[in-house]
Amino acid sequence: MAVAPAEVAHIILFVGSFYVENFGCRATQADGAAIERQLTDSGLARAGTAAEAEVVVLNTCTVTSSADQDARAAIRRIHRNNPAARILVTGCYAQRAPEEIAAIEGVSIVIGNSHKHRLAEIAISSGFVSLHSILSTTDTSSEFVASVSATLKPVHRAQVVVEDIFAHTALMAAPVFDSDNEKTRPNLKVQDGCNNRCSFCVIPFVRGRSRSLPLGEVLSNVDQLVANGYQELVLSGINLGKWGRDLRTGSEVNAAVRSLRFTDLLRAVLERTSVPLLRISSVEAMDWSDELIEMMAGTTRIARHAHVPLQSGSDRILRLMHRRYRPWHYEDRIRRIHEAMPTAAIGADVMVGFPGETDEDFEQTRAFIERLPFTYLHVFTYSSRPGTPSAEMPNQVPVQKARERNRILREVAARKKHEFQQQFVGDTLRALTLTQISNGRTEALTDNYQKLWIAGELPANRMLTARIHSVEGEALVGEVRD
Questions:
Q1: Domain 428-480 classified CATH 2.40.50.140?
Q2: Is the pLDDT of residue 124 over 90?
Q3: Is pLDDT at 135 greater than 50 in this prediction?
Q4: Which of 153, 225, 305, 474 is the least crowded, having the fewest Cβ atoms under 10 Å away?
């Protein structure tokens, strides 16, 4: 009896163990959760560690050279500790440099972002996953078993499954949880890809065009998470503010056809689900419309937290970066957010050491940050990415100079954060308890994105109001208000 390869996944249960290790951003973490769902649906079981797994999936990042190094180090570590494991590498690094990864000892197969949504299917059909048992069939003859096994030859060298990312439109979505706080704050990716072409960024070339999770699927996911009792949900994406631009509403008949907007998504979630608290991850300055700001300020169900990537406060450097805003536009958006929500956490990504960044350019960035109401910063040192325009630019900044600029901005950020936190001593804040308990205190996260230690050992995933009585290190300290 001959069996077509396409039928194999439907009639075979692969019993084994897998472990997924994720690197990088929230979108990558969400992809990892979707991969786990694929593998468990295929009959594999999660292993506790990579050392215990038959199959190890590395879901990689490539935003910096250090991210690539971390992935290579992990491959070598896993192969050393578990030589029998079959290592599958996927994600952004796999999309950008598949042959480079395939050459590393221990790697069995490389699957790019172009095919990540079919990872389990490819692993099974290629023979990457071992055949352990045959179920759900009436034909168990040796001839049948032999015909199926013939389609699943063991992999003896690294295979590569990668195609042009711009030819693919699939979007994987599955809730992902903070590894340290698995009982709280699920993260739902609702958008992937990016249509911008910042001169330093490789992400559009490894994740493709911007695409959105349809509204119905978003609402269904939110409903499921709410039904499971979660109090806070984080919406994330590669370019989250562009959610909906590839979707349409209305019809040609009523001439009301238009692209959806991010505010349409937020309004629908607020009106059609009962999620207690919605937190928005990073949104570009161009997408902080007055409507979005007013919507956030007008409800207690959206967290008082705005993350607005900056990169540089120098107009000249922003132009070299091909960023789509100018400093004065960015400043207007930040001040508008602050005026509408004075207690909101406002954060930014900032890059130092971009090619051609002079001392004057850096000073403009430092002064720009000083005068704006930021409460935290993510400061990065420029990392050249192969294939990006900035990699070929002249006047590359010496590493030591870039590191010194990084240190200066981190000090500015630490001072601003401390000043922001001090204003809440004596006040009350809403917070969600997490799972960490230490020295008789429970860690929580406030509505406005501050770590909070609360007196007493409290259950996770509890929304409460706490009175703040001090600041300890980088955290607030308080107690539950009666």
A1: yes
A2: no
A3: no
A4: 153
Instruction: Give the DSSP H or E segment for 316.
Output: helix 315-321
Query: Residue 21's beta-bridge partner residues?
Result: 58
C-alpha to C-alpha distances, 477 to 101, 120, 227, 413, 451, nearest whole angstrom: 46, 46, 31, 20, 9
User: Do the beta carbons of residue 154 and residue 126 sit within 8 Å?
Assistant: no
The architecture of the domain spanning 5-165 is 3-Layer(aba) Sandwich (3.40)
- Which residues lie below 8 Å from residue 160, measured CB to CB, with a gap of 6+? 98, 99, 102, 109, 110
Q: How far apart are CA 443 and CA 435, in angstroms?
A: 7
Residue 311 tokens, joined: 């990169």
Fold entry, domain 169-422: pyruvate-formate lyase- activating enzyme (3.80.30)
Specify the DSSP class assigned to residue 66. H
Query: Which residues in the chain are classed under CATH 3.80.30.20?
Result: 169-422
CA pair distance 446, 413, nearest whole angstrom: 19
With contact defined as beta carbons under 8 Å apart, do 92 and 201 qualify? no
The two structure tokens encoding residue 115 = 């095919």
Under a CB-based contact definition with an 8 Å cutoff, are residues 26 and 32 in contact? Answer: no
The pTM for the full model equals 0.85
- pLDDT, residue 182, reads 55
CA dist 150 to 4, 54, 140, 160, Å? 11, 21, 15, 20
**The tokens 């050491």 sit on which residue?**
353
Structure tokens at 240: 């989250």
Domain with CATH 2.40.50.140 in the chain: 428-480
pLDDT > 90? residue 410 = yes
What is the enclosing helix (H) or strand (E) of 328? helix 327-340
Q: Tokens in use for 204?
A: 């559009």
pLDDT tens for each residue of 310-367: 999 999 999 999 999 999 999 999 999 999 999 999 999 999 999 999 999 999 999 9
Q: How far apart are CA 312 and CA 285, in angstroms?
A: 13
Check pLDDT > 60 for residue 142. Answer: no
Q: Kindly give, in sequence order, each residue whose CB lies less than 8 Å from that of residue 197, ignoring residues fewer than 6 positions away.
A: 204, 322
The segment with the largest mean pLDDT, out of 17-21, 120-124, 302-306, 435-439, is: 302-306
451 beta partners:
445
Domain with CATH 3.40.50.12160 in the chain: 5-165
Query: Whose CA is closest to 369, among 400, 405, 399, 395?
Result: 405
Tokens 């990540």 sit on residue: 116
What is the β-pairing status of strands 258-259 and 248-249?
antiparallel
**Residue 121 pLDDT more than 70?**
yes
Residue 53 φ then ψ, to 5°? -95, 145
Structure confidence by residue, pLDDT tens digits, 44-69: 889 999 999 999 999 999 999 999 99
Query: In this predicted structure, what is the pLDDT of residue 255?
Result: 43
C-beta atoms surrounding 47 within 10 Å: 19
